[in-house]
Amino acid sequence: LVYAREAGWQSHPDMFRANLQLIFFIMHILAISSMMYGGVITAETAKASAGLFPAVVAGGLAGNKLAARVPKDVFQKLVINGLRVMGVLFVGKSVL
């Protein structure tokens, strides 16, 4: 939420979305690399996950088309509430 506020996302939602995508991409590359190193991800699980790649591409394309149609105020509410949900999930996971 602090990042969202300080990043000026109200006036530049496309730039904010692009920054979040880059942050999540880097974060997941590091997480996947450490899971591969730790043996959590095997060749078998990698093959199973690769089968989901078309769904990821389809979701990205659909998201890009929808993003142009969402008004700024609705976008702001979606982002804030999405970040709240992710925060609660992360805190919940860390205490369990």
Tell me the layout of helices and strands.
Layout: H1 2-6, H2 13-37, H3 43-50, H4 53-67, H5 72-95
Explain the overall architecture.
This protein is mainly α and 96 residues long. Helices cover 80% and strands 0% of the residues. The chain is globular and about 45 Å long. The mean pLDDT is 84.
How many helices does DSSP assign?
Answer: 5
Q: What gap, in angstroms, lies between the N and C termini? A: 23 Å
Number of strands: 0
Strand content: under 5%
How would you classify the helix and strand content by structural class?
mainly alpha
- Bulk shape: globular
Radius of gyration, in Å, reads 16 Å
Short description:
This protein is mostly helical and 96 residues long.
Keywords summarizing the entry:
96 residues; mainly alpha; 5 helices; globular
